[in-house]
Amino acid sequence: ETLGIPELAARYPAHSGTTHAALKALDHNAIDYELVSKLVQWAVSCQVDEAAKWAADRLGRVAEHQPHQPKPDAAKAALADAVLIFLPGLKEITALQEELMRIPMFNREPAASWVLPLHSTVPPEDQRKVFEHAPAGVTKIILATNIAETAVTVDDVAFVIDTGRMKENRYDPQRRMSSLDDVPVSRANAKQRRGRAGRVRSGVAVHLFTSHRHAHIMLSAQSPEVQRVPLEQLALRIKALEYPGSIADVCARLVEPPAPAAVERAVS
Predict the structure, then answer these.
(1) Mean pLDDT score of the chain, rounded to an integer?
(2) For 204-246, how does the pLDDT look when each residue is reduced to its tens digit (9 = 90+)?
(3) 73 confidence band (pLDDT: 50, 70, 90)
(4) CATH assignment of 31-217, given 3.40.50.1380, 3.40.50.300, 3.30.43.10, 3.30.420.40?
(5) CA–CA dist 127, 137 (Å, integer)
(6) Mean pLDDT, range 181-208, rounded to an integer
(7) pLDDT grade, residue 48 (50/70/90)?
(8) Roughly how many angstroms between the first and final C-alpha of the chain, as a whole number?
(9) Cross-strand partners of 184
(10) Could you point out which of 128, 132, 139, 168 has its C-alpha 20 to 30 Å from the C-alpha of 252?
(11) 200 touches 189 (CB < 8 A)
(12) pTM, two decimal places
């Protein structure tokens, strides 16, 4: 995405010069916490149905009421009950939480108690608050890892903000080293995140990456875990279960097999 203003204008002709300048200044491989916090403020203060209609108009679509969504009354439909922000990990969640706590609308009670982190190390008793409804006049802000993509459903989320990043286990079979890398999400991840908005009412999802990146750079789906993790445990399990054939033969029969070199190094 390292393009100049003329190239950005040619790629995104429907957008304004201000948008082109903002894209030029943006680091597309990092999270802009100031931008995310401004989006959260916008989501908290705007009316959901108007935002959904605006987004549909921008995309050239008709904003339709989903059959499974009950018609909300006007008072309830006005503002968002909850905003869900997807972030890669605990460090990024903490950074955004600190950014939001510097803003008056979030750093005073009762709003401050409803800025909620959601990741794998949050105790179960604290996770339960994510599913509770905030009191009238307060918007619940959920700062989540991709645990909120499929593992949990928060029914009152009206806005989703997707930073387009996630943490993924990677393994280098030559160096025999594992790492937890910050990587772009896949198109399948983005679709799952978009689906968290508007479960029982109108909703809006904002993805912080360009349409070009979505269509041409991002992977269609994550690589299978068996292709990204050490295989020693899998090799031992295959041996213990006495599957017919060698470990390499069993791995080769998987629907999406790991690289032969990775299997060979795990066995050796």
Answers:
(1) 86
(2) 899 999 999 999 999 999 888 888 888 888 999 998 998 999 9
(3) very low
(4) 3.40.50.300
(5) 22
(6) 88
(7) confident
(8) 42
(9) 165
(10) 168
(11) no
(12) 0.83
**For residue 44, what are the CA distances in angstroms to 22, 160, 203, 232?**
23, 11, 13, 48
Domain ranges of the chain: 1-28, 31-217, 225-267
CA nearest neighbour of 85 among 22, 174, 159, 25:
159
- Report the alpha-carbon distance of residue 35 to residue 37 in Å, rounded: 5
Number of neighbours of residue 167 by Cβ within 10 angstroms: 19
CA angle centred on 79, ends 88 and 83, rounded to 5°: 10
Residue 45 reports pLDDT greater than 90? no
State the DSSP string of the chain. Answer: ----HHHHHHH-TTS-HHHHHHHHHS-TTS--HHHHHHHHHHHHHSBHHHHHHHHHHHTT------TTS----HHHHSB-SEEEEE-SSHHHHHHHHHHHTTSHHHHSTTGGGGEEEESTTS-HHHHGGGGSPPPTT--EEEEE-THHHHT---TTEEEEEE-SEEEEEEEETTTTEEEEEEEEPPHHHHHHHHTTS-SSS--EEEESS-HHIIIIIS-SSPPPGGGTS--HHHHHHHHHTT-SS-HHHHHHTSSSPPPHHHHHHHH-
User: What residue has token string 């005073």?
Assistant: 108
Closest CA to 238 of 228, 252, 227, 225: 252
As a whole number, mean pLDDT of residues 48-55 equals 71
111: how many CB neighbours lie within 10 A of its CB?
Answer: 21
